[in-house]
Every structure is written in structure tokens, then in C-alpha cells.
Specification:
Layout lengths: L1 E4 L2 E4 L5 H10 L5 H4 L9 H15 L10 E6 L2 E12 L4 E2 L10 E9 L9 H15 L5 E6 L3 H10 L1 E13 L2 E10 L1 H20 L1
Parallel strand pairs: 6-7
Antiparallel strand pairs: 1-2, 2-3, 3-4, 4-5, 4-6, 7-9, 8-9
């Protein structure tokens, strides 16, 4: 499956992506310092290659009508990261899909990782997440969230630009390099998101005719 939006492509994983993941999780790990640095663990190429090979085999060939929880991000033919989603409960805590009980209230949270530093700060991440949000809204997901920590300034700005509004703050529950940070949960204001998307479309149409 492939979704084209602005200057980016969201697509299913390719076998060639495996080696990118090996790099990102063993040697070129700068991106992980803002993702969830409290979870970082040393790994080796053999372990990562086997793990991502197994993952690739589990997702390749998915039918088009199966709702994706993850897409790879490609820009000008270059694989630079991914967007993904997971489930959270009414306390905004991660919950495994297999652990969800009948009738339990759960929500979908979205996230993004851009692993190539030379592509940071130019709107690629915002466009990728915007396309991912469109995908879920078009597939019947009415309520979306995103989560980060108070030290991840780029992600906070991205979330706010797209129309996410802070709905929960867990004071001091994240520690990075000996300093305490807050865990943040944001809820998407769907009307703002759709209005913003419409305004951007009109701006592009006006620019085209000028």
C-alpha cells in the first residue's frame, strides 16, 4: 500500500528497509535521543537484522483493505523513518491489543520517527503525520491522540501545528540525563485539523493560479 502526500510517500515496508533499521538501531542513533531515550538499549547488527527480518516477513503482502498501524516514510526515493500507532487506555497508558477486554475504552495514538538528521526541520515530519492522520480519519477512526515528553520540543511544535491539544500531563515521570521531564498526551481537535487542511489546500490553489 502507498499513500502520496505533498513531498512524501507513506508505504508498506520493503525488504531493503531492513538494513536502514539496522543502521538506525545500532550506529546512527541520534534520532533516538528525542524519541524515548529512557528506553534506549545497546544492540548489535545481527540481533537487529534478525528482528527486522522477522517483522518484515510478518507484514509483507498485507491486503490493501487491512488497516495499517505503521507506514515507512519515503522522500525522493529515500527511506527516512516511519509513522506508527498504538493503543492507549483511559489513563493514557499503552495497552497491548491482545490485552484489550470487551467493552474497554481504548484510543489510538500516533507517532513519528525521522531517523536521518539532514531531513529534520523542513516540514517533512509534519506532512508525514498529517497524511497518517488523514488515513485514519478516512478509515473511521474518530478520536486520535499523540504522546511525547516535555523535552521533545520539535514533536510538541509538530503536534500543535496539526491541531493536537494537550489533555494530560504527568509531572516528572520521565528522566533523561538525570533531569526530570513531564509525560504529555495530546488529543486531536478534528475540526481544527480539517479546517487547517482546507486552508492549506486553498493557499496552494491560489499560488498555482497567480
Amino acid at each position: 500500500m502507498e499513500i502520496k502526500f505533498e513531498n512524501i510517500v507513506l508505504r508498506d515496508m520493503l525488504e531493503s528497509d531492513i538494513e536502514d533499521y539496522v543502521r538506525w538501531w545500532t550506529t546512527e542513533t541520534e534520532w533516538s535521543k528525542t524519541d524515548a531515550p529512557w528506553e534506549n538499549e545497546d544492540s548489535d547488527e545481527e540481533t537487529e537484522r534478525a528482528s527486522w527480518r522477522e517483522y518484515y516477513e510478518s507484514v509483507k503482502g498485507l491486503p490493501e483493505d487491512v488497516c495499517r498501524w505503521k507506514f515507512e516514510i519515503e522522500v525522493n526515493g529515500r527511506h527516512i523513518g516511519w509513522v506508527s500507532s498504538y493503543m492507549i487506555d483511559e489513563k493514557w497508558e499503552w495497552i497491548a491489543v491482545r490485552s484489550i477486554k470487551e467493552g474497554q475504552t481504548v484510543y489510538r495514538a500516533v507517532g513519528i520517527d525521522i531517523c536521518e538528521p539532514d531531513t529534520w526541520g523542513n516540514g517533512i515530519g509534519t506532512n508525514a503525520l498529517r497524511a497518517f492522520i488523514h488515513y485514519y480519519l478516512e478509515n473511521g477512526v474518530d478520536e486520535l491522540y499523540t504522546q511525547t515528553w516535555s523535552g521533545n520540543v520539535r514533536m510538541i511544535r509538530c503536534a500543535e501545528k496539526l491541531g493536537f491539544v494537550e489533555c494530560s500531563r504527568n509531572i516528572g515521570n520521565r528522566e533523561v540525563d538525570g533531569q526530570k521531564y513531564d509525560g504529555l498526551t495530546f488529543r486531536l481537535e478534528r475540526i481544527f485539523f480539517q479546517k487547517n487542511a482546507l486552508e492549506n489546500k486553498r493557499k496552494k490553489e491560489i499560488a498555482f493560479f497567480c
